[in-house]
């Protein structure tokens, strides 16, 4: 499959894989992931105010751009990081939170939700829901009409689940949901599971492993664990769903877009799972960002 990648994407994949470790323990996996993330994280933009604090007992990080907020209050992006519900944290996705805050002129709030397998579903999902509710009800100067949720991979799963739970509870919804190569619980018979079984950076066996760790102890997963299991897809926020061509999770996003009443599907030709970090290095990824930022700017 590597032969189908552009030279710049292949170079990105090789750089990412250079952080792979022989230590297959959970601690080793997290250490290698954190080292990789640091290598791809640029310095904070000049003037961006970054602050760590807690909301409803959950650690979060806010990113405030160096501009005056509108009189109606800050637009807000709640960002939920990827990492298979097993790796990642507040540092791992600084790179995209920096860009979203600066390019959109919005406050971004990232969530350090609890990770599996120590804290399987619904712990991380509940953390994200608690933070959203705190942002809506707390003493924050946000424009309630301009608050959206975004996430990549496992974070895309959590963002979709958040919208389902808020709709079911009759609570105010985000103005939009942005799901970037999300894992939504599609079954093993989806074409992308076999076509991209050995895709770079995420294989089908990796997907199975992450699912098992996240769902540990769950007798029967529900729609908040795997949103494609929902029976009702009405009344949900407009969605931007980006999928990567060479990704076993590709058809999760395609199927979800088909089931929503208002969804923009971005089919990322030449993209691989986890490629958001290739910003400025791979033209295919830059095109993804242009579409992503365009959609979000329109909703904010």
Mind explaining what this structure looks like?
It is a single chain. By secondary structure, this protein is an alpha/beta fold. The chain has a single domain, classed as Rossmann fold, CATH 3.40.50.1820. 37% of the residues lie in helices and 20% in strands. The chain contains nine helices and eight strands. It has helices spanning 7-17, 26-40, 94-104, 123-137, 154-169, 191-195, 204-214, 250-259, 283-299; strands at residues 49-55, 58-64, 74-80, 107-111, 142-152, 177-180, 239-246, 263-272. An eight-stranded mixed β-sheet has the order 1-2-4-3-5-6-7-8, sandwiched between helices. Helix 4 (123-137) packs across helix 5. The radius of gyration is 18 Å and the shape is globular. The N and C termini lie far apart (38 Å). The model has no long low-confidence stretch (mean pLDDT 95).
CATH architecture: 3-Layer(aba) Sandwich
Sketch the topology as an H/E string, one letter per element: HHEEEHEHEHEHHEHEH
* Total domains: 1
Oligomer: single chain
In total, the number of strands is: 8
Supply the number of helical segments.
9
What fraction, in percent, of the residue positions are helical? 25-40%
- Please state the average pLDDT score: 95
- The CATH topology corresponds to Rossmann fold
Alpha carbon gap, first and last residue:
38 Å
What percent of residues are in strands? 15-25%
What does the main sheet amount to?
8 strands, mixed
Shape designation? globular
Strand order of the largest sheet: 1-2-4-3-5-6-7-8
CATH superfamily: Alpha/Beta hydrolase fold, catalytic domain
What CATH first level would be assigned? Alpha Beta
């Amino acid at each position: 499959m590597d032969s189908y990648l552009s030279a710049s994407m292949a170079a990105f994949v090789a750089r990412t894989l250079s952080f792979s470790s022989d230590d297959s323990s959970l601690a080793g996996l997290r250490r290698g992931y954190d080292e990789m993330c640091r290598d791809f994280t640029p310095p904070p933009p000049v003037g961006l105010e970054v602050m760590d604090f807690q909301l409803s007992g959950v650690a979060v990080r806010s990113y405030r751009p160096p501009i005056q907020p509108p009189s109606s209050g800050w637009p807000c992006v709640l960002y939920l990081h990827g990492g298979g519900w097993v790796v990642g944290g507040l540092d791992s996705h600084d790179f995209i939170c920096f860009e979203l805050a600066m390019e959109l002129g919005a406050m971004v709030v990232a969530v350090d939700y609890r990770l599996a397998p120590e804290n399987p579903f619904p712990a991380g999902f509940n953390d994200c829901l608690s933070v959203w509710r705190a942002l809506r009800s707390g003493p924050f100067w946000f424009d309630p009409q301009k608050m959206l949720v975004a996430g990549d991979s496992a974070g895309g799963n959590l963002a979709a689940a958040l919208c389902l739970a808020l709709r079911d509870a009759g609570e105010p919804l985000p103005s939009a949901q942005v799901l970037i190569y999300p894992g939504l619980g599609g079954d093993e018979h989806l074409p992308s599971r076999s076509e991209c079984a050995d895709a770079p950076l995420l294989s089908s066996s990796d997907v199975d492993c992450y699912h098992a760790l996240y769902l540990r102890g769950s007798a029967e997963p529900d729609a908040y664990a795997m949103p494609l299991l929902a029976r009702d897809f009405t009344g949900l926020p407009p969605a931007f769903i980006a999928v990567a061509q060479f990704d076993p999770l590709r058809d999760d996003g395609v199927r979800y877009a088909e089931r929503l009443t208002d969804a923009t599907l971005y089919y990322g030709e030449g993209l691989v799972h986890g490629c958001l970090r290739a910003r400025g290095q791979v033209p295919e990824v830059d095109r993804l960002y242009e579409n992503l930022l365009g959609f979000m700017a329109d909703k904010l």
